[in-house]
Design a protein that fits this description.
By secondary structure, the protein is of the alpha+beta class. 46% of the residues lie in helices and 11% in strands. The model has no long low-confidence stretch (mean pLDDT 87).
């Protein structure tokens, strides 16, 4: 083993050069004695398991010094239960210290790091946005180690891989690519590895979302190119199908790729019920997602173009629109619902319920009485909002609202031609999207009848289903 420093004093001078002497209180450099030998201990306070480190140092005082061993061999022989790494590069050692591992520098200049990290964080708990009636209540946390363990607990196979990469200059964020060997596409894996190497930035403070924009060059595309999940069971299920999971340290969300629009509309609750009930839930959700997009613009079209209505639907549309144009009423009400949603997020939990009641009942009722809104406007905007909340993907639900407003504008400007033209443009746009060279509307476009049937119907688990075609899995048979 080669020396990293000429002496212990040089190691201490290097550490102070990196962090400054007495410039930051959490960067600690202390001279300790192990047996009869002085050593330099370098660590970041708050990221080290203090109790384990104290226990280790205490044990090293009690043990007798081994005879006939050199200085480096003696240190290595007294780390029987910890992960010890001999350091040969100063930059690598600095990064290791910044991740929370303490470093020891011997009197002669040998350097070691010991894995005794303990990050501040919370225990796994059920995610708020992916709740289920039945199922596990654990969820991903901000610790990368905990997240990999939660997946490993569900997939006890030697084929499960976690490739760790470091990105950015200052952040040095740990990113783990998770996949099952033989199920995931090597083409997709090479694509992600190459994109990770191309990330040039000082830090990923927004973690997974920032990484998504670097990996897929999203720019101003409104559609989500990846699926986020905070549930380990959903992540494990996708890995078995041949998908790839990307875990970013400090983020409780895991990125799943490749994904299509139908993947955003699936929920774990469908697989916690009987196949028939799960199919009913899935079809209801798909219908709700479609209505959240077109119900409001279509009602506006029918209310303003009465000649298209058959006699038995003549009741649709307000009899007295009022002083404010119907389009402005719909726009104000729809944006008001969105503002109410944002206010509920930023309002403390004890006050959010009261705020929702005041906004929904008091303000809505008074707005109708003073003539700001007609009753039907409030009704259809509220129903549309409920349909939007039924979309399990938060990113897709926000995108749906944006497209709904766009269709409403086109309908207000051009009438019926504008409504159908906006739908045609939206459909064409979705057909052109191919993140990771995967059609976004698969299996509808291009049409795969068997795969489309599996998207609409929740078949029994006993029925053999191959891995999805979009994963490009080398072996699509899940039973071999």
């Amino acid at each position: 083993m080669e020396k990293l420093f000429e002496s212990m004093e040089e190691g201490e001078a290097w550490f102070h050069k990196c962090f400054g002497k007495d410039k930051t209180f959490d960067a600690e450099a202390r001279v300790i004695h192990l047996w009869d030998t002085p050593a330099l201990l370098l660590y970041i306070n708050g990221l080290v398991d203090d109790q384990s480190l104290l226990t280790l140092l205490t044990r090293m005082q009690w043990n007798e010094v081994a005879e006939g061993l050199g200085e480096s061999e003696r240190f290595l022989s007294y780390f029987p239960f910890q992960s010890v790494t001999e350091q040969q590069d100063r930059d690598e050692m600095l990064t290791t210290i910044l991740t929370g591992q303490p470093a020891f520098v011997t009197k002669s200049g040998y350097a070691f790091t010991v894995d005794m990290r303990e990050y501040p964080g919370r225990q796994p708990e059920e995610p708020d946005i992916e709740k289920v009636v039945r199922g596990s209540r654990d969820g991903f946390t901000e610790s990368l180690i905990q997240n990999t363990a939660l997946v490993r607990r569900r997939l006890r196979t030697e084929d499960l891989r976690f490739e760790v990469h470091q990105t950015t200059v200052n952040g040095k964020t740990d990113v783990a690519i998770s996949y099952i060997q033989g199920a995931a596409s090597e083409e997709h894996l090479d694509y992600l590895r190459k994109r990770l190497e191309e990330v040039v930035h000082d830090g990923l403070t927004m973690t997974d979302k920032s990484l998504e924009e670097f990996l897929f060059k999203q720019r101003f595309h409104p559609m989500p190119f990846v699926r986020y999940t905070e549930r380990p069971d959903i992540c494990a299920a996708h890995l078995l199908e041949g998908h790839i999971a990307i875990m970013v340290d400090t983020s409780p969300s895991v990125i799943l790729v490749p994904i299509t629009i139908f993947g955003h509309l699936q929920h774990a609750e469908e697989y916690r019920q009987a196949p028939l009930i799960g199919t009913f839930v899935r079809l209801t959700r798909l219908l709700g997602a479609a209505l959240s997009l077109v119900l409001l613009p279509f009602w506006y079209l029918m209310a303003t173009e009465q000649q298209y209505l058959p006699d038995f639907l003549s009741y649709i549309g307000p009899k007295d629109i009022g002083e404010i144009p119907l389009f402005i009423q719909l726009l104000m009400a729809d944006i008001g619902i969105e503002v109410l949603r944002m206010a509920a997020i930023h309002t403390p939990t004890p006050l959010s319920t009261a705020m929702g009641l005041v906004a929904a009942i008091v303000i809505g009722d008074i707005a109708i009485q003073v003539g700001l809104f007609t009753p039907e406007v409030v009704l259809y905007v509220a129903v549309t909002a409920i349909f939007t909340f039924a979309i399990p993907s938060y990113e897709l639900s926000i995108t749906t609202k944006v497209f709904r407003v766009g269709i409403l504008f086109a309908t207000a400007l051009l009438g019926a031609p504008g409504f159908f033209l906006a739908l045609a443009v939206l459909f064409y746009y979705l057909c052109t999207l191919k993140p990771m060279n995967v059609p976004y509307l698969w299996p509808a476009v291009p049409f795969f009848p068997a795969a489309m049937l599996r998207m609409l119907i929740r078949f029994p688990m006993t029925r053999d289903a191959p891995r999805p075609f979009i994963t490009h899995a080398p072996n699509r048979n899940r039973l071999k």
